[in-house]
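Entry 0007
Protein: Barstar (barnase inhibitor) domain-containing protein
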Amino acid sequence: MTSQLPAPGVPGLLDGAVRPGIYRLPLTETPARAAARAAEAGWRAARLHLDGIADKAAFLDRCAADLDFPGWFGHNWDALADCLTDLSWWRKDGEPRGYLLVAEDWDAFRKAAPEAASVAGTIFADAVDHWAGQQTPMAILLA
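Output (structure tokens):
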């Protein structure tokens, strides 16, 4: 599902040299710096903080809070998929060049809640695939 982000890393992802997908955040990059680079490049970026998240309900609650989901988010897997494939709620400031989600502490979440992480990973992959066919791509970095 995930691979290492190939050279030229985050800048290449943001300028189109690297195909959008789900990648591991390089050790030389911080989540904050990746999000800042995305903003500088005209992408809409968000950081999903998964430290201490150990189940589906907590994961979905954190997604709602950190990603600023709309009020119609139903706190279930289908609603997560809907929010990530209909990003109209994320276009508050106009049309971005792309969408970047940085999922921090992913490995800790995956170890604490492997089934939930597996489902979330599938939903992430489906969202990235959905946006691959659009003018505004989505990429996810697992940190």
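Curator remark: Residues 3-142 form a domain with the Barnase; Chain D fold (CATH 3.30.370.10). The longest strand covers residues 44-49.
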